[in-house]
Amino acid sequence: MSNETIPQRSRSDQTKGNGLADARVVVTGGSAGIGLAVAKHFAALGARVAVLDRNLPVGLEGVEGYRADVTDQEQVNTAMRQIAENFGGIDVLVNNAGVSFVGTVEDGSMEDWHRLFDLNVLGYVRTTRAALPYLRKSGQPAIVNVSSCSATNGIPKRALYSATKGGVQSLTLAMAADLISEGIRVNSVIPGTVNTPFMDKIVAADADPAAKRREFEARQPTGHMVEADEVAAAVAFLASPASRSTVGASLVIDGGMATIRLPKE
Ligand SMILES: NC(=O)c1ccc[n+]([C@@H]2O[C@H](COP(=O)([O-])OP(=O)(O)OC[C@H]3O[C@@H](n4cnc5c(N)ncnc54)[C@H](O)[C@@H]3O)[C@@H](O)[C@H]2O)c1
């Protein structure tokens, strides 16, 4: 096993693959949806990519799968150690594995509330704790947390989910403050409504799925859902040396949902 400190890259090295060629990247929840798009995007830039997921990715060229549930610290530690051994270290952690929950503050059992916080918030804590010893030895360490427009907008029937994503936003700021003295940059992305299996489930559960999909599309002033590869490009920017002065920031990819109010016709 080799966890040696990698040397700082030269300026010319930093331009290859946006400075991510040969970067060693871990993407949690990378077997589907946004995480899958992120894994593919980094692989296309020439990075070495490991997906840490409870389901293994299927047939992804240039991507290695490591099965672990982010609610289990031991599984996470084992997977992260194996990744670091196989890659000779870790440069980038993308915290992405998360699930949704539809309901108001009165909905869901207390078990549901504990389960979602355990996965969506503590999952990011577990993977970060496991990755930090390796990130500390990297020449270009970065953490990107996938947050949500639910953290920053009042969206009906998303009380539990929004609360977990608000936790991710605050955690991002606090981690950024704690880790910047060590050169580890922490940022987040705030996607709007993204066309993934996560949204498909919410649409399918509705009495009128076609109307529900149209409603989700209309939520973005652009009139269409965000595609996962748009979020992937934003994640890659925040992980790359091109954003070396961007710390504790949130990059919004929401089709104007948070900022634009179109007049009603
Ligand atoms: N889809 C959207 O509209 C949207 C919008 C904003 C933010 N997000 C956030 O983006 C992230 C990914 O969402 P998505 O839409 O790609 O979801 P998805 O359901 O399409 O994919 C989630 C992935 O995470 C994995 N996963 C789930 N629980 C896990 C666990 N306990 N341990 C390990 N892996 C686990 C799944 O196996 C899957 O591969 C989530 O954090 C979500 O909150 C999604």
Characterization of the model:
With 265 residues, the protein is an alpha/beta fold. The protein has one domain (20-195, 228-253): NAD(P)-binding Rossmann-like Domain (Rossmann fold), CATH 3.40.50. Helix content is 41%, strand content 14%. It has nine helices and seven strands, in the order αβαββαβααβαβαααβ. It has helices at residues 11-15, 33-44, 73-87, 110-120, 122-135, 159-179, 197-204, 209-218, 228-239, and strands spanning 24-28, 48-53, 63-67, 92-95, 142-146, 185-191, 250-253. It has a seven-stranded parallel β-sheet with strand order 3-2-1-4-5-6-7, with helices on both faces. Helix 2 packs across helix 9 (228-239), helix 3 (73-87) packs parallel to helix 5 (122-135) and helix 4 (110-120) runs parallel beside helix 6. The protein starts with 10 loop residues before the first helix and ends in a 12-residue tail after the last strand. Nicotinamide-adenine-dinucleotide binds next to helix 2 and helix 7. Nicotinamide-adenine-dinucleotide binds at residues 29, 31-35, 53-55, 69-71, 96-99, 119, 146, 148, 191, 193-194, 196-199.
How many independent structural domains? 1
CATH class: Alpha Beta
Can you identify the CATH superfamily?
NAD(P)-binding Rossmann-like Domain
SS-derived structural category: alpha/beta
H/E series, N to C? HEHEEHEHHEHEHHHE
In the CATH hierarchy, the architecture is 3-Layer(aba) Sandwich
Tell me roughly what share of residues is in helical segments: 40-55%
> What is the strand tally?
7
Spans where pLDDT lies below 50 across 5 or more residues: 1-12
Overall, the morphology is globular
* Biggest sheet details: 7 strands, parallel
Hetero compounds: nicotinamide-adenine-dinucleotide
CATH T-level topology = Rossmann fold
Query: What integer is the average pLDDT?
Result: 93
Q: Strand percentage, roughly?
A: 5-15%
Task: Write down the Rg.
Answer: 18 Å
